[in-house]
Every structure is written in structure tokens, then in C-alpha cells.
Amino acid sequence: MKTPAPTPRSEIDESKYCASFCEKHGWFASGLKGKSESFNSGRYFAAGCPQCAAEKRAKKNFEQSQIPPKFSEKNFENYIVSNPGQERVLAACKDFAASVDENVRAGKGLLLIGTPGTGKTHLGCSILSEAIREGKTALFTTVSKMLSKIKSTWATDSAQSQAQVIRSFTGVDILVLDEIGTYRTITEKEKDLLFEIINERYEQMRSTIFISNLNLSGPESIEEYLEERIMDRLCEQSKILIFNWKSYRRHEEKRRISDGEI
């Protein structure tokens, strides 16, 4: 959420509104003047500073997003760019985040696919953080965690129903679904559950960012893994970004070895 500049008191029409002061954000119009049944003082107050309330909602949304601690501080500024491909995907992800309101309303998404260790999750979480700042509800999960959580409801003593858990994945404004294809032993029943979630988000025009280390097509590909019924929906709503350079993690380890750091 972008923090607007403080409003000078002189810009508040105090013939209509009550001017209140926030130590953090300055002056704001706290409510309409005029008598009401609830307030005999002649003033009707709204609840507190709207910017403080928005920041509180964003903090709650971030805590509920389940972004892993390793990626909680990741952003576009600390994504390391060393080749044209990285410049291209960084620009595309920044553009997506800059229009996150429009993209969420239209149910637009991204497919970040390619080599492990190339920054796909970094950029996916960066977009998620920007969406939260803009007041969107958001969630990060992997395919394995999502399916495990759904299957946990099959126990007789489960506190939640399968439908409730599925709604937790389909109801958020924007979802990052990571590690598609890492969970290789997926059953037909699990594929059906995955399709149910992706299809519901597709039909309700919810924004989804898909992340996978698989190839785009051919053997051992995301196309083969998800099958046609899911890929059709994914491709219709998502822009595909290919990450086809060497792993940063492996490159950094080799550099540290050659420099004598380890």
C-alpha cells in the first residue's frame, strides 16, 4: 500500500468534517459533523486514522499470507540481475505488481517456469508482498503443502472440512502456488483436487502465480504433469516467463569456494 502524503489541516473542510490528528500520519477528516441519535455533542466521529487502519489490515494480511521466512524480506530491489533474461523477467514481474489492482480484478496471473535456483520464488513473493501492501488478501503455498492440508481433513477428528480448506486456497485475491511438479507421486485423486482449486480460481477470476522447475512442454514437463484440462486454464489467464539461466545458488557456492570463503 502506497502511503499518501500527510493532509494539511487547511485542506479539510471543517464546516462538514471533524479534523483529527494522528501522530504518525498527520491530519485527517475523521467524520461528518452534525447531530445524531448516538452523539448529542453535534459531531459524528469515524473510527481513527484511516491510514493506520489500512496499515493494520496489511500487517494482518502479511501474517496470514504464509510467505516463508526465507522470502519475507525479498523484493524487486534485492533481486540480483546479471543477464538479459533476468532483466526481462524482473521487468515483467514489476509491471505485474504495478498493475496489481487491475490484474487481480481481471484474474490475470503468471507462470514462472525454468531452472531451479534462478529466483522464481523470490519474484513470486515480491509480487505477493506488493499485493498485500495494496490491500489484497494473499497466500503462498506449495503443491505438496496444499494437498497435505486438504488430505488432513479426511481424518475423523479433523477440525476443518475439506470444503473449508479448499476455500482457504480459492478465496484469496492472489495465490502463489510453488513447486509444481516437485511432488512427483501425485495420484489421480490429488490431480482432481488440484484441478478443483485451479478451476475455481479460474471461474471466480482470482489471480494466481504458478511456479515450477519443470520444462514447459515435452517429457517431464508442466504440460504433462498438469494435463490439458488444467493447462488450458493456466495458459488462458497467465503470462509465461521462462527462467533458463544457471542457478544463482550453485554459482554463488562455486564463487565462495574459488574465493576461499569456504
Describe this structure in words.
Helix 5 (143-151) runs antiparallel to helix 6 (162-170) and helix 7 (188-203) packs parallel to helix 8 (222-237). By secondary structure, the protein is an alpha/beta fold. Helix content is 43%, strand content 16%. The strands form two sheets. A five-stranded parallel sheet has the order 4-5-6-3-7, with helices on both faces. A two-stranded antiparallel sheet has the order 1-2.
* Strand arrangement, major sheet: 4-5-6-3-7
Low-confidence runs (pLDDT<50, min 5 residues)?
36-40, 249-262
| Overall SS class | alpha/beta
Q: What characterizes the major β-sheet?
A: 5 strands, parallel
Q: Give the helix tally.
A: 9
Estimate the strand proportion: 15-25%
Question: What's this model, at a glance?
Answer:
The protein is of the alpha/beta class.
Summary tags:
262 residues, alpha/beta, five-stranded parallel β-sheet, two-stranded antiparallel sheet, 9 helices, 7 strands, globular, disordered C terminus
In terms of topology, how is this protein built?
Elements lengths: L16 E6 L3 E7 L17 H15 L19 H15 L1 H7 L2 E6 L5 H14 L4 E5 H9 L10 H9 L3 E7 L7 H16 L3 E6 L9 H16 E6 L4 H11 L4
